[in-house]
């Protein structure tokens, strides 16, 4: 089926091809009479996928040869949007509000280019066809009037309220969070029409906020009945029959190292020093594929979900808890089935030999990052005594992790350490503390061990030429790299080899900028030049890791790509991969990789939304107070300031009343026309919290004028994607509550949030 589709596409992409009618295609392609129905179905499928386009005169062609682009619409709260093309080498296309033609955020669409992009200016287009609707339901706040109601979407990127006829309100009341099903799609100058299908609760009711986000992303907390029936039928103990043919590693000392609240423990590690001085590292991964059989209800549901979702107050697992927290979790002192990668690593960090096999294991201890850190870095006597039989192993693990990290850095892996927030909630879901999540040597141990394991597996199976799913990170866009090179050149840095950039060249710039005032701005602009990692059936390497081969093997409890490659690896190792099976996998894996990439993006957005929500809730009680922050982004409409605890808010350009400021997009700065005062990314500023808007999940700050109008060696730095923030290596400036500042003629306390 897939081959036939590709043949049709290849024919339509030929230079000599002109759009043909259905009958003409049948004749030219010599379709047998008995196959005409199937051929028509194939064309319909290709049209629904947006891969071919049927004109108003019923002629078929590929969009790219008709000045048309297929992709996804990314809406904007101001009413316009951007087409994100399927072709990742193409730049986004601006779609003005008048060119949306009823398309909504996330819809799959086809657009016509009306104005070509020139220089930095984007191409402009209009939507001419909606291939697939994304928003069958919308979550928002219901508002009623005398004769009708409407739903204001929670997601500001969905422009236009949803009109609700009086007989479709179904008991909803003003101010309630609801789910509206769309029954009439929007059109030019006409809003969508819908009906209320679920009332989540009052917008201020505890729990309804997170539940609204869960519904908005179509995340399902419960599992279908048939999935639960299968999960409950699985034995929670490992029997002797299960371990036949497996290597018995139950006497091998091994541990899991995870966060305190982790329940799905899918990786254990062991480490021995060999007589020749090398290390024997064992990475033992939960053998989920033993329990989750291909095309079973469990497997079908796991693929739909693609990944577990870690929200601020709960986990929505890919697999039911009977597996994710039960028989598949590598809990201590119980037998578990595993898939083991045993690697011999020399003193330079090179894997000189490895084995991959099914095993049965029994984890000695369930360790936490905190306890391992205290043992290794703080010499905690109580913990050292408690784990005296393991302390030597932990020290060897630290030794090997540092070797592996050095090897990775030496080859040019880009070292971005991002600040992550840890949000503490009370029993009612109210945020009581927001602080930075600290990465320690204990985290680094597991990170390095998983990285080397994933690389080893990917390289092994790349050379077997079997169907596979890789984790790839493609080379950055040349235009973006050239712009970055010009930017750092103006700061006195040289980027080598921009025509065929190597990650080491970027890492070298980062190293030279380390500790300087421009470090943050260079890190930030560099981040903007990189692509996003994704899953693919074709190996094209991982640019950020400077790795030729990489995959996700180590988390099959929470990621579907790991689960599917476990199955493939087992089939290969047992000699069960025949040509027919390979053909089936080759036809299926591209779709699986794309689905998993899409589900990963949705999970990341949902996780970020719940974090943003709780951060705003936390700040609400601090309105009017003053804080120290760092400028994290500068735009034409203002600047974003991030506090020490990762909470970020906007300082609007209009709030800068001491001067008229002009945005300089070359230096990512705001410059006062009269005073020449400059605000750049990385500058430390004091801000007043003006507003914490929970419904919009936004924070607004205003700059506190300390009376200093000089440009005192402002740090020179840029603008990054909202989900990426570089690690800052400045000392904390502790602000005492007793410090008094004069702010616009009033005295205010400068209060630091405890983090």
Automatic annotation (TrEMBL):
Acidic residues bias (residue ranges): 713-722
InterPro entries: CSD (IPR011129), CSD2 (IPR040476), NA-bd_OB-fold (IPR012340), RNase_B_OB_dom (IPR013223), RNase_II/R (IPR001900), RNase_II/RNase_R (IPR004476), RNase_R (IPR011805), RNR_Ribonuclease (IPR050180)
Protein origin, superkingdom: Bacteria
GO molecular function (one): exoribonuclease II activity
Primary localization: cytoplasm
Keywords: Cytoplasm, Exonuclease, Hydrolase, Nuclease, RNA-binding
E.C. number: 3.1.13.1
Cellular component terms (Gene Ontology): cytosol
Pfam families with a match to the protein in the record: CSD2, OB_RNB, RNB, S1
Reaction catalysis annotation: Exonucleolytic cleavage in the 3'- to 5'-direction to yield nucleoside 5'-phosphates
Region (Disordered): 708-730
Enzyme class: hydrolase
Spans through the membrane: none
Record domain S1 motif: where: 624-704
Cellular localization per UniProt: Cytoplasm
Biological processes, Gene Ontology terms: mRNA catabolic process
Gene3D superfamilies: Nucleic acid-binding proteins
Function text: 3'-5' exoribonuclease that releases 5'-nucleoside monophosphates and is involved in maturation of structured RNAs.
Family: Belongs to the RNR ribonuclease family. RNase R subfamily.
Annotated protein name in UniProt: Ribonuclease R
Source species: Acetivibrio straminisolvens JCM 21531
